[in-house]
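Pipeline run #58 for the internal structure catalog. This entry was flagged by the ingest filter as a single-chain record with no existing model, so it goes straight to prediction. Upstream metadata was stripped on purpose; only the residue string is passed forward. Reviewer on rotation: M.T. Logging verbosity set to normal.
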Amino acid sequence: MDKKELLAKIVEKKEYSNLPKKDVELAFSQFDKKQYLDEEKIKLTRNFLRRIYVSFSSVKLLNLKDKNAEWVLKKHRSTKERFEYYPEIYKRILLKEKTIIDLGAGVNGFSYSYFKNKIKYVATEAVGQLVDLMNFYFKRYKINAKAHHLSLFELEKTKELIKNISGSKVIFLFKVIDSLEMLEKNYSKKLLKEITPLVERIVLSFATKSLGRRFRFSARRTWIISFIEENFTILDDFELGGERYISFKSRE
């Protein structure tokens, strides 16, 4: 099979069917090598995508069902770890911005009720089924929010989306950088350089304990922390519930 046929084969399975083409191509490039048979390339790419998009650990989330926000937040592995800390997290990281732009949101839009002030919420997410799930929730409860099916590797489209939102805005990048780096090394740095000047602040987070097992990682992400320290002004830095949050802005 040629590359086009292999890519089409990879996304035949439902859980991969609504991923951005760019993300699938980047994942496939890791295994598009002579030592792998076509079936191996397909299997390895799918397994790699599964590692990146932890939402696949709960296929139930890929089907629109009449479930409340708490159920969804507890079902997604990433937000499940954060669930009991939402009030404290948002109390600390939300300031006076009028809009939250949540990049690589997963199902974080379901935490909208924890925002102290009902501000505008805009999300981007690569897993199309999760975009549908969030928009279904926003529409049902008449929430001032919208999710967009967009890959963070579609940089110009992401920047355009940010620019088209008026007023003060803060970007959330929760547990996103590890997935970006798996697909393209140092892409997180490129992304931050491009989008930080477009907003008042960015709040970036990464896990300090493993999902589920709760043991602490030995890796401390010094590469991204050093990059932020060298290029931006850090406003806050704290750890809560196995997740470290760093709030920063462009240098004046």
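catalog note: The two ends are 53 Å apart (CA to CA).
catalog note: The chain has two domains: 3-52, 63-250.
status: ready for reviewer M.T.
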